Every structure is written in structure tokens, then in C-alpha cells.
Amino acid sequence: MLTTLYVEARKLKGSLVAWLCLAAPTLVAVLLSVIFFRVRVASWTDNLTGATGLWAYFVMPMTITALTILVAQVEHGPRAWDHLLALPVPRWRLFAAKGIVVMGLIALMSVLLALEIRAAGFMVEHVAPKRAPTGVFSWLLLIKLLSAMWGAALFMAMIQLWVALRFRSFVAPLTVGVAGTFFAVAAFGAPETVFVPWVMPVSVIAGDHARHMMAVTLGIGGGILTLLAMMVSLSRREA
Known about the structure:
The protein is mainly α. It is globular, with a radius of gyration of 19 Å. It is 76% helix and 0% strand. It has one domain (2-235). The longest helix is centred in the middle third of the chain and has 37 residues, at 91-127.
């Protein structure tokens, strides 16, 4: 399995994945920097909640959509599935590896976002101390928020990956991602939306502990079940 993971990671070398993983969290950090200078001074707690909320509300879903498309197009582009599925390797490993790589890259972006948020804080503290957030910067709070959002995003990510791997055209996963994100933005306030995979990450900061725990539990549980179903379904495809 480690060899399969290594191969999957190597396949992404030279693709746009690296640029995507760098650009997505940087966008949030840049917007946070603008907020520091343009909006009234707020506490670090409010700023951390707001920055991670922006990440979970819109940037993360669209990034996951793009990421899963790029990962799938590595095989779809050169029409490499015939060769790949004919290899003497259990097929489920190939699809499991793609799921693990996707979640690993999302985790990497979460780490980068945490570092860039802190860097934005350092920048405003030195350039315009009067605009710096009040209170103490809490790594613990930031790590808890981003970790919970990562877990809650598993369900959404596996759905997007399944669609991206199932259809050769990028139109299908792109449509699913845009539709899911639009629905999440339009209907976020409704209590029932906690069951919508695209809403689960942002439900982490809803202010309701029960909703928070439900989003993380459903995100992880639904993601694992979807990954298993994807592995079984796609393993049956013709080589």
C-alpha cells in the first residue's frame, strides 16, 4: 500500500495540484490581511473563526472540487485506465490510495493555512500595530477548528472523488461541486443542512456544540462509507 501511495503522489508531480494547494490557503490569508487593515479591530478568536469559516464555507469546497478533478484527470487525460487496471495490483488499493492522497493534500493545505494566518498576524503587528487583533493568538483553537473541518470534509471529498473518477469528462464533478457549494451558501441557516456534505465543514463553527459534533461525525462516517463504496464500485469497471 505504501508503494501505491508513493506512486499516486509521484503522478501529481508537474501537475497543477501543487499550485492549487499553495494558492487556496494563500487566498484566505490574503483576505484576512485585508480584513485586518479595513475592518475594525477584533479579537484573535473572532479572526480565527472568521478565517477558518471563509475556508470551510466556500474556498475548501471549490478547492476540493478542483483537486479531485486534477487527481482523476491524471488517468483520464492520457486514457491510462486500461493499463492501470490491468496491473497485478488489487484494484481497491488504487482507489484507496487516491482517496488517501486527496485527504492528505487537504490536510497539507490546512497546515499551510494555519501558518499563513499566523504570518498575517505577525505582518499586521509589525506594520500597523494599532490594527492588530486583540487578545492572545491560540494555536490550540486554530488546530481544533481546522482539524474538525478536515474531518467534516471527508464525506464531501469522497463524493467528489468518486464522481471525478467515474466520469472521464471534468464537467460532471465540476457541476456536482458547484451545485453543492451553491446549495451550501444558499441554505446554510436551515437546521437540516447539517446532513448536506458540503455544509458539514462550516457547521463546525455554527456555535452549536451538538451541530459541531454531528457534522464531524457524519463527515468522517459518511466519508469512510463512501470511500468503501467507491472502491467496490470502481473496482468492477472493465479494464
